[in-house]
Amino acid sequence: MSVPVNSLSVFFPCYNDGGTIASMVITAQKAARQQTDDYEIIVVDDGSRDNSREILHQLKEQDPDHIRLILHEKNRGYGGALRSGFGAAAKEWIFYTDGDAQYDPAELALLTEQADSGVDCVQGYKLKRHDPLHRIWIGKMYHWAMKLLFGLKIRDVDCDFRLIRRAMYNRIRLTQDSGVICLELIKKLQHAGCRFREVGVRHYFRACGSSQFFNFNRVAAVAVGVLGLWWKLVILGRYDA
């Protein structure tokens, strides 16, 4: 049986998401208010070059009691943005998803319904992936390769729609600056004894902008990062650094 989520941090990494971040924040405000009066919305702007920052300042002016901004003057990468968001989150439960509107913050309620005393992380999985066909196939191959390499037990490590008990998050330390941080997060939570529950969520076509991942330099960097993380966690068993 679910128990009330007494306090909630919601955060979004934002990089050139000016076309979507306002709707994400507004939807998250409504979703959070349905759960608790003790909530905060944090947006980590990771050096955006579009109008994201101007929009974020306007949003904060409208609700300064609940909206907090973290502004990176230089882009630190997806992992750097997530680490800033987690580090700033002050409430009992931490929910995050991306600022590009491929997930719906209104579905936060699907996760909180499963947040009982026997759960530390409610993990979303995509009911159906809405991306170009080549990205779907690459995603499937990546998913199964990562499950094999890291011994992951959840069904969709690539789904950044997560609700995590802060007390559990505080038991691990994240180090990655790239998208490899998602592997690091799940593997370290799993190693720390995290109790997972999984919930299907909807995934949408990207409304604005383009993926920052699918170019040669980023793919090569992720491949190197994955191998380095695998060596450190799986081969050397070093979970404290």
For CATH, the homologous superfamily is named as Spore Coat Polysaccharide Biosynthesis Protein SpsA, Chain A
Instruction: Report mean pLDDT, rounded to a whole number.
Output: 92
**Spatial strand order of the main sheet:** 3-2-1-4-6-5-7
- Intertermini distance: 36 Å
In short, what is this structure?
This protein is α/β, with parallel strands linked by helices and 241 residues long. It has one domain: Spore Coat Polysaccharide Biosynthesis Protein SpsA, Chain A (Alpha-Beta Complex), CATH 3.90.550. It has 8 helices and 7 strands; from the N terminus they run βαβαβαβαβαβααβα.
Q: Can you lay out the helices and strands and say which pair or pack?
A:
Blueprint: E1 8-14, H1 21-33, E2 39-46, H2 52-62, E3 67-72, H3 77-88, E4 93-97, H4 108-112, E5 121-126, H5 133-150, E6 161-165, H6 166-169, H7 181-191, E7 196-201, H8 216-235
Parallel strand pairs: 1-2, 1-4, 2-3, 5-7
Antiparallel strand pairs: 4-6, 5-6
